[in-house]
Each structure stands twice: as structure tokens, then as C-alpha cells.
Amino acid sequence: MSDFAGTWVLDPDRTSIEFHTKALWVIPTKGTFRSLEGAGTVTADGGIEGRLVIDAASVDTRNKKRNAHLRTADFLEVDTFPTIAYEVTSGRLTGPGTVDLDGTLTAHGVTSPLAVSASLRLAADTVTIWADVAIDRSAWGLTLTPLGAGLKNRVFVRSRFDKV
User: For residue 79, how far is the Cα from the chain centroid?
Assistant: First the structure.
């Protein structure tokens, strides 16, 4: 863990957060968040803490009408809840190139626990982390489901952090 010890700052230009869902049960829909920031600290004894903050209004599905709807009270309600945040409270290396993170996700004014298993690669003073997370939106009060569409979403995160 000593290779990772230090303070790390997210490189937003080399980070992507993409979500996949199905509209009306069958229409694959994906999008991304364009504006985010974050940082983390790893102690010499392996303690991990950090924070990733997403500008909820930066949601982009490549469809202006859908983007506008996602920003309304039906979904993200960005005027009231402008950010989505993941707070890492602890973590542990689980093998070569893998880490389990425990934390909370705050979205739509609701904070719920969220455990994330991720792959990572350290190169010089950068670390890249990949994670594929299944999220049930109902845990955060995001329950609008037109015509019964599912509440489960897949979120793919690829983030690069630079050591400071």
C-alpha cells in the first residue's frame, strides 16, 4: 500500500462516468456526466478516504430533450440537488490491481451506503481506477419509471488521479 501513499487529485479530462439503462424496458440508453472533481488520500498504513463530486446538471445523453427532462424534478432535480457525491470512508487492496471501497453516495438529497470493487493501475505519479457498479435508483428516491422501466442502472467509472 505504500506505493499508493499520498494525496491524489482527480484529472477530470481523463475521467469518465458513464451510465447505462433501458428506457421502456428495451431501448438501451446511455449517458455521461461532463463535470466532476475529486481527491483522495492513502495513508502509509493503507487507510483510504476520498471524495468524488459530480455536477448533476452536466448529464449528457446526446439528446437535448432527454437531458432537460433528466434535470427536472422527475429525476435529478438539479435546481435543488446540484451535485452527486461519492464519499470513500475506507478501502482495502484485495489483490494485485484490485481494491474494495466502502462509502456513501449522495444523490437527490439522499445518502446511502455504496460499496465499490475496482481495478487499479499505478504508473509513476498517476493511478487509474476502473469500476462497474450496479445501482438501484430507488435507494436515492429516483423512482420515476415510465411504463414500468427498470430502476437498475449500470455505472462505469474510469478515473485518473495524479499524485500531488
Answer: 20
